Amino acid sequence: MMRNLLPVLTIVATLLALWYAAAVALNAQWERDQAARAGETLTLPALITDTWSQDKPKLPAPHQVAVEIWNTTGAMVLEGRGFSKRSLFYHSWITFSATALGFVLGTALGVALAIGIVYNRTMDMSVMPWVIASQTIPILAIAPMIIVVLNAVGISGLLPKAMISMYLSFFPVVVGMVKGLRSPTPMQLDQMRTWNASASQTFWRLRLPSSLPYLFTSLKVGMAASLVGAIVGELPTGAVAGLGARLLAGSYYGQTIQIWSALIMAATLAAVLVGLIGLIQRITLKRMGMA
Amino acid sequence: MSSNTVISARDLSLTFQTGDGPVHALKDVSLEVEKGDFVSFIGPSGCGKTTFLRCMADLEHPTGGSLTVNGASAEEARKSRAYGYVFQAAGLYPWRTIGGNIRLPLEIMGYARDDQEARVKRVLELVDLAGFERKYPWQLSGGMQQRASIARALAFDADLLLMDEPFGALDEIVRDHLNEQLLHLWDRTNKTICFVTHSIPEAVYLSTKIVVMSPRPGRITDVIESTLPRVRPLDIRETPEFLDIAHRVREGLRAGHSDDL
Description:
heterodimer, A: mainly alpha, 2 domains, 12 helices, B: 261 residues, alpha/beta, 8 helices
């Protein structure tokens, strides 16, 4: 891990440098307009420091985003207002709960469909095209429909967003699990036949353990898709809570720093969740002899 | 057909319908295997020896003739777990220990927990792997894995052992050692063994009966009753008697090929 640290830090440093440079470039026009209006000339050092501290920059500088994040997370926790409605922790929690629920539902649905496809010839021949077609419909178009329909039936709040997350996360799980459940070799399946094992015994003792590497890979993709679904689900409802809501609110009021802070928070949330699955994957597969 | 007959095949045929036309994997194969026999099937690839073994195991379904195992159909034999099958690759599950792998058929067949432990211990001793219960397959060499696979086939006390080129992937030295062990095991347990190979010395060394087969269509060219004694040290492979039988096997193989030449 230490071996990876230096290259990773180098890349992060490069990205930050590029970010700062881009901030100067994108925010410079506004500075020049201001200077022209006030009849002053703009020196380069002044240009640079000013572009990095605008109130509503086109591209916020990294330190501006960092300060905003701190103000809405750490500082609020220190004041005891960690879960107030303006705290990013609160919004992250809202998005996370929809993500988690949608992820669990999507995984369950994906595994169920995969088992059906592997064990039932009719499903094998008919389900996959529908599953693929379902993913080609733009989620941004469906999400409002799902929320409106579910609200009309009286289901609101967490569940509609979780439904959208489920919709996006079940697909990688189906694809991965079908491949995984079919991964035992014909020889291993013949071996099971010579012991006259039932279909259920073959499933629990051979197919399911063999499919775990494929499952974990699918779970990582599914988790990321689930987060996207939760954020997309927060956009149509007139943006009340959650990271998606925060993104939307920021764009309504031109608060670019707010947008970026929500963005970075969402990315961090995704990294943590996928990393968590990766950790579980490594531990489990190691105990199974890299099954 | 005496009550001592374990396997009886009469005019057994298996034709695969392929895109290129029918493939006669087996044509009119007739054979009787008595209890306690060690029968080797030898022939070039495509002669039907593996197909014949798989028919006995109910992994393939013949298209003609009849086949009985223990007096009943092959399917009933499979359902009553009357045989142990050893494949060319060990096929051990990496997520189970050696003990866990051997316990797998026992779990499937519903043996009690203590019974399972006792059986695992016993068969590991039989194949000279005592004490390896807690090890994982990746910690064992190829030869040891194959021995574990044989132990697994012995665990549920089937009287019939079907082995499909089990030592084919191993080097000569390990092979010799395992041949010796297998013969010793056969002597101790008195099982009936059907063994597919394409090594002539292995076939002659191990068997009481050698079945020479040839391809296109898959058929039996010769059945040789071995005159070698039941107890055989490895040196017996240099005796004139051994070489005579090997010569006869070679003649049988050549005869099967004569239509190609």
